[in-house]
Specification:
The structure holds 2 protein chains of 2 kinds. Chain A has helices spanning 2-38, 57-65, 68-99, 105-115, 124-133, 140-164, 169-176, 181-192, 194-210, 213-218, 227-235, 243-263, 265-277. Chain A is an all-alpha fold. Chain A folds into 2 domains: 2-59, no CATH class; 61-277, MetI-like fold, CATH 1.10.3720.10. The longest helix of chain A has 37 residues, at 2-38. Chain B is built from 21 helices and 2 strands.
């Protein structure tokens, strides 16, 4: 009995060791970047994990000397409108596919499934030329439209799957009471599908903060840039002389998004799970 | 336009006409057609000859007139542009850009012609669909009128559209968005693979682009520089996709199991810490990692040198092999929290009685793990693992933001040692104007991903349900 408990003790110790080491590995980059942003120097080389003196100069620099606040505002604007537009498009399409039987429905569902499988780059040249033709290049709305268009196939499948799970009897009862399609949609479907709506809205809000490819393709001028592009260009230079400014910028981006993630953690996990199961 | 009308007559109403015949034969035997009632066959044929004619014959004046007006408008104003667009689509332009002294004389812009051609083709298909609808409508209304039902008047028609057309109304914005921002670009991307659109000799508007059939594919497989790059990049892509999926999957599993043990304290704390890599925006953390593993100034190298473990800096990201190892290692950091969270959910949902029953049968803890826990976890997460494999196959962000595909590989055309297919495509299109080859590779990626996804999807519940429903 004693040998049993002592071996368990060793096992537990081992597990705590693993946990602590992993926690250090996970936390190290986080602590390091926060420390970097507070370091007085400029370069990566002089950056210390425990700075001699704390300095907020880099944050100040970002807001006074660079276009950083503008990038922040651009990204927020794009994220916000993409969230609204994508959610509306996805939800209306999903509702139609879930609740109505009409000619072309099956083909539509199949088409959306296939469209998801093309690498998104494939359309890049065409999108570029299209936006050029309609004068939406280097324009935030051009980017928002591209994002929203791209979010439909995946989102609509996901939300359709959720809608399918809501019993139809509720709507039928409402219909007998004389409610119209529009009323049913707003008064019954919307409140019942809140979790999936939150998932769609949050993912589409976070998307533009992360996207690098299309933002770089569509937005050309410095004052139109989003954060992802701006930050990448800050450190992709050879000398890395702006490292600490980048660190400050990175902290300011990561903070709100991370908080958002923790708030909506459950919805995000469930949404992703559902997403994989629904194709 | 004559040829165009012919096409419409042959392609569209074939099935409708056949159905019409069958139904007419049946109907006329039951109740002989009266003079004041419409004959469905005649209505369908009339509508086929000219949009709206059948509706007029059915005495639906407003509908008939507006249909006829639409066709007239299209015939008058869009015949010439349509012919022009089709000419552009088939030839991709005939006059190259020329010079008149110092002045540049603009020729045909092949790429604009191609996109314009696709636009017209999509619109034309939509129009054909509408034409088919018009014939079907004329036929259906005529059938109704045979039964003695009065055709709808304008007011009823609008009401009818509102009721039966509601799904279409909901779908219209999505269809427009998808058509122009997804389908059109993809169609264009696919078609480019069958042209020679690439630097240095075939770039619009300076020179013309031509259709070359499968030549670009052959080049990709047979021309030494291309095929060496393709096979090299492709095999690394597959290795990358497998390793990055497997490592994160099992690391996630390990931590899920540890955190699910009875004796472990502060579970919530550990979980919250480990979930951080998932919560922090990925592009930020990738850029941070890029700095941490910086070969010259990175803190990892400095730390190791300070400890005396190494004498000179380790080229984490500039040695071809080491860069790949670093990428997989860094990807573990990003990837394991997702699996950990997911598998914790599966573990807590496993019925405790299963283990109790195993205890009664005298099973050891390793036996319990391999015979109960593992199968259940695999069953619940297999579809996700396959999707994650597909995602890693196309994981542009981590490769490009970490190494930009580097270090340089002199054996490759426009690719570095750590480039995967998707980041190679990015370089081919955006930096080097090799559009045709890029498009070929995209099509190959699509085929691979599609095979996996469809195979995966067919096994899931959603698909089966969908099949049962309709």
């Amino acid at each position: 009995m004693t040998s049993m408990s002592s071996s368990r003790k060793v096992g537990n110790m081992l597990m705590y060791a693993v946990l602590i080491i992993t926690a250090l590995c996970v936390l190290y980059p986080v602590v390091w970047i926060v420390a970097g942003s507070l370091n007085p120097g400029d370069s990566l080389f002089s950056s210390r994990l425990i700075p001699d003196t704390l300095s907020f100069a880099h944050y100040q620099y970002l807001f006074t000397e660079t276009d950083y606040p503008l990038w922040y505002w651009n990204t927020f604007k794009i994220a916000f409108w993409n969230m609204i537009l994508s959610t509306v498009l996805v939800v209306t399409a999903a509702y139609a596919f879930s609740r109505f039987r009409f000619p072309g429905r099956k083909q539509g569902l199949m088409a959306m499934l296939v469209l998801q499988m093309f690498p998104s780059f494939m359309g890049m040249i065409a999108i570029y030329i299209l936006l050029l033709q309609v004068n939406l290049l280097d324009n935030h709305w051009g980017l928002i439209l591209v994002y929203a268009g791209g979010s439909i196939p995946f989102g609509a499948w996901l939300v359709k799957g959720y809608f399918d799970g809501i019993p139809r009897s509720l709507e039928e009862a409402a219909k007998i009471d004389g409610a119209s399609d529009v009323t049913i949609f707003y008064k019954i479907m919307m409140p019942l599908s809140k979790p999936i709506l939150v998932f769609i809205a949050v993912t589409n809000f976070i998307g533009p903060w992360m996207d690098f490819i299309f933002a770089r393709l569509v937005l050309r001028s410095d004052e139109k840039k989003t954060l992802a592009v701006g930050l990448f260009e800050m450190i992709s230079g050879r000398a890395n002389t702006e490292f600490t400014n980048f660190a400050a910028g990175a902290v300011l981006v990561a903070l709100p998004i991370t908080i958002l993630f923790f708030i909506f953690q459950d919805q995000l996990v469930n949404g992703l799970k559902a997403g994989a199961n629904k194709g | 336009m004559a040829s165009l009308r012919n096409k419409e007559q042959y392609s569209v109403p074939d099935t409708a006409a056949k159905k019409a015949k069958r139904k007419v034969a049946f109907k006329s035997s039951v109740s002989p057609t009266k003079v004041d009632r419409s004959n469905p066959k005649i209505a369908a044929v009339l509508s086929l000859l000219f949009m709206g004619a059948g509706q007029l014959y059915n005495r639906q004046i407003l509908k008939g007139l507006s249909f006829a007006a639409l066709e007239l408008y299209l015939l008058i104003f869009w015949t010439v542009p349509f012919q022009w667009a089709m000419w552009g689509l088939t030839t991709l332009g005939e006059t190259p850009q020329g010079r008149d002294g110092f002045k540049i004389v603009q020729g045909d812009h092949s790429i604009f012609l191609l996109i314009e051609g696709i636009l017209f083709l999509i619109s034309f298909l939509l129009f054909l669909w509408f034409y088919y609808f018009n014939v079907r409508d004329a036929y259906k209304v005529a059938i109704k009128s045979q039964k003695g039902l009065k055709p709808n008047n304008a007011k009823e028609m609008f009401k009818n559209i509102w009721e039966n057309g509601f799904p279409y109304l909901l779908l219209t914005p999505s269809i427009v968005f998808t058509a122009f921002l997804t389908i059109l670009p993809l169609l264009f991307g696919v078609l480019i693979a069958f042209t020679n659109y690439s630097a240095p000799n075939h770039l619009a508007p300076k020179s013309l682009v031509d259709w070359v059939g499968l030549d670009t594919f052959l080049q990709l497989f047979q021309m030494k520089t291309w095929s060496a790059t393709f096979y090299g990049v492709f095999s690394w892509t597959v290795i990358w996709a497998i390793l990055s999926t497997v490592t994160t999957f099992f690391l996630g599993l390990v931590f899920a199991v540890i955190l699910n043990q009875k004796g472990i304290r502060f579970k919530r704390f550990w979980r919250s810490v480990f979930i951080l890599p998932w919560a922090i925006p990925q592009f930020v953390s990738i850029l941070i990692m890029r700095n941490i593993f910086n070969g010259e100034f990175g803190p990892i190298n400095r730390f190791l040198i300070d400890l005396g473990i190494i004498n000179q800096a380790v080229p984490w990201l500039s040695d071809p092999f080491l860069a790949k190892v670093t990428l997989i290692g860094v990807n573990m950091w990003f990837g394991f929290p997702f699996w950990m969270v997911l598998m914790s959910g599966v573990l807590t949902s496993i019925d405790k009685e299963l283990y109790e029953a195993a205890d009664v049968d005298g099973a050891g803890s390793s036996q319990k793990f391999w015979k109960i826990t593992m199968p259940l976890i695999m069953f619940a997460t297999a579809p996700l693992a396959i999707m994650s494999f597909a995602g890693n196959f196309n994981n542009f962000n981590i490769i490009y933001l970490m190494t930009e595909g580097g270090p340089v590989n002199i054996d490759y055309a426009y690719a570095g040692s750590t480039d995967i297919l998707i980041s190679w495509i990015y370089k081919l299109t955006l930096d080097n104007n090799q559009f045709a080859v890029a498009s070929c590779v995209s099509i190959l990626i699509f085929i691979i991903i599609a095979t996996f996804s469809i195979w995966n999807f067919r096994r899931t519940r959603a698909f089966k349900e969908e099949d049962m429903m309709s």
